[in-house]
Amino acid sequence: MPRPVEALIHPAALAHNLARARAAAPDARIWAVVKANAYGHGIERVFDGLRSADGFALLDLAEAVRVRDLGWRGPILLLEGVFEPRDLELCSRLGLWHVVHIKEQIDWLAAHKTQQPHRVFLKMNSGMNRLGFRPEVFRSAWARLDALPQVDEISLMTHFSDADGPRGVAHQVAAFEAATLDLPGERSISNSAALLRHSALRSDWVRAGILSYGSAPDFPERDITHWQLQPAMTLRSKLLATQDLQPGDTVGYGSSYRAGLAQRIGIVACGYADGYPRNCPTGTLVLVDGVRTTTVGRVSMDMLAVDLQPVPAAGVGSEVTLWGHGPRGSLLPIDDVAQAAGTIGYELMCAVAPRVPVRVALAA
Ligand SMILES: Cc1ncc(COP(=O)(O)O)c(C=O)c1O
Question: Helix, strand or coil for residue 362?
Answer without folding.
Answer: coil
